[in-house]
Amino acid sequence: MSEVRVRFAPSPTGYLHIGGLRTAVYNYLYAKQNNGKFLLRIEDTDQTRLVEGAIENLIASLQWSGVEIDEGVLMEDGKVVQKGECGPYIQSERLDIYKKYVDQLIEEGHAYYCFCTKERLDNLREGQKMKGQVPRYDGLCRNIPLDEARERIANGEEYVVRLKLPHDRDIKFRDEVRGDIVINTNEMDDQVLMKSDGFPTYHLAVVVDDHLMGITHIVRGEEWLPSTPKHVYLYEAFGWEQPTYVHLPGVLNSDHKKLSKRQGDVSVEDFKGHGYLPEGLVNYLALVGWSPESNEELFTMEELIEQFNVKRVAKTGGVFDKKKLDWVNSHYMKKLSREELGELAFPYMEKAGYVNKEFVENNKEKYLVLMETIQDSLDRLEQAPEQSTFLFEEYKVTEEEAIEQLKGETAPDVIQGLEEALAEVDEIDQEFAKGLMKKVQKAKGVKGKNLFMPARAAMTGNVHGPDLTSIIYLLGKEEILNRLEKAKSYMN
Ligand code: GLU
Q: Is 423 exposed, middle or buried (0-12, 13-18, 19+ CB in 10 A)?
C-alpha cells in the first residue's frame, strides 16, 4: 500500500471558515491515523478573489488549532515558506505546469479551444433559462479543426480551453460517504479548463495537482461533489489513477442552511476571539458530521486520531450548536492550570480595564487565586471579566434577595462579627481568609445560611457567586471594611 497523502486546499479569500477547519481536521486525522502526510496547498487561481494576508491567516488558524502541516505551504518565523518535493504548492506559481497538461489534453482530443464571446455565452444562457433548460455550453467550438483554432490564436483572438466530454457516457465513481455515484455526460457541461487570462480553472488545477502531489484521498466539502464527475473524467483522460473520494456533509445553522458570515461568527478567528480554546473548538467540530462509536464526546486530538472513522461520517449536514460547543469548551477550560488560565484570560481582563501587566506582576498570587475562583464558571475566556465583577466593579447592592438578606435578623451580628475579627489583623492572608467565617460563627453563635447569606450579600452585594473564602482573600481587609460600612445602610 502506498503512503496516505491528503491535502487541505483552501482559496486565500479571507479567513478560515469553521467548516473549512473541520475539513482540515478530518484530513489531518485521517492522515495521522494512517501514518500519512497532510499537505497544505493554496488554490489561488481566481485572482479576483485574493485577499492580502489571507495565506498567513489560514496557516496561523491551522497552527492555533493544532493541525500540523507536513508538506506544502507553511509558516516559519512568521514567513510563508514552501516545503516538499512536489512544489510549488501555490497554484499561481504552477501556470506552466497546467499549460503543459492542457496542451496534452488538446493534442489528444480531450479538450478544445473555444472562442465564444461573453455576449454569445450570456445570450445562450438567457435563452436556455427562458426555455426552462439547465444553462450549458452548446458545443459550438467543439469541432473547429485544431489547425484553424491555432491560426485564430496566432491572430490574437481570445480563447478559453474546454473539456471535450464524450456524449452519453456514464461516469462512475465511489464516494466513501455517499457510496457509488453515476452521472451521464449528457447531464454535464464542457467545463472551461483554462481561462482567457492563462489561469487554469479549479477543475483542471485540482486534478493536475492532486495527481502530481500524489494525493491518495480527497477529503473535502460536499459542495464539490457535483464537480467530481468532471474530475473523474479528467483522471481517465490523462490515464491517471483515481484517488479515493470522501465528501463531507455541510456545517449548518439552526435553519439547516449553510453557516454563513451573514448570520454571525463563522471564522476560526471569531471563535478564537470569543475565547474558545483550540482543543474545545476542534473537539466540537469533529463531532459535527462524525459520530464516534461510543457515547463518549470529549476527545483530545490524539484521541480523535485514534477514534475517527471515515465510515461513520454522516451523509447529511450537521447543525452547529453553540451551546454544545460551550459545553465541550468548558471541559477544556477546567483542565487549564491557574497559570495557563491567567495568561489566556489576561487580554480579556485587560480589555475590560480590570488589570494590566503591572497589576498582575505585583499581585501574582491574588490574580491566580481569582483565576482559580472563576475557572469553573467559564465556558470561554471572554467570560472572565464578567465573572470578576465582584472584585473590580464598584460595590453596590441592587439584587432584591441581597437586600433582603441585609435586612434579615442576623445581618447586624454577622457584620459586627466580621468587623471584630478583621480588627485583629493588618492584612488578610489565605490562612486567615479560610478561618474568618468560623471565627464569626463562634463569636456570634450564628451559623449556616443565617451566617453565610448575609456575609456574602454584605461583601459582594449578591447572594450567589464564587467561593466565599476566595472572595475574602481577594477583596482584602480595607475593601471588606468599606463594603461592610456601605452594607449597613441597607439594614433595618
Ligand atoms: N479550493 C477549494 C476550496 O476553496 C478546494 C476544493 C477541494 O478540496 O477540492 O474549498
A: exposed
Q: What is the pLDDT of residues 476-489, one digit of tens each?
A: 999 999 999 999 99
What's the pLDDT tens digit per position in 184-240?
999 999 999 999 999 999 999 999 999 999 999 999 999 999 999 999 999 999 999
Which atom of ligand 1 is least distant from the CA of 8? 8
How is residue 55 written as a grid cell?
A: 495565506
Tell me the three state secondary structure of residue 76: strand
Two domains, one topology: 5-91+251-322 and 94-248:
yes
Q: Confirm if 181 and 173 have CB atoms less than 8 A apart.
A: yes
CA distances to 137, 192, 386, 388, 469 from 392, rounded to whole Å, are 67, 62, 10, 7, 17
Hey, how many other C-beta atoms are within 10 angstroms of the C-beta on 446? 20
Distance 11 CA to ligand 1 centre (A): 7
pTM over 0.70: yes
**5-91+251-322: CATH homologous superfamily?**
HUPs (3.40.50.620)
Distance 432 CA to ligand 1 centre (A): 61
Has 261 been annotated as catalytic?
yes
Asked if CATH classification 3.40.50.620 holds for the domain at 94-248, the reply, yes or no, is yes
Domain ranges of the chain: 5-91+251-322, 94-248, 337-385, 394-488
Cβ contact 433:421 at 8 Å: no
Per-residue b/e over 77-98, b at no fewer than 16 CB within 10 Å? Answer: eeeeebebebebbbbbebbebb
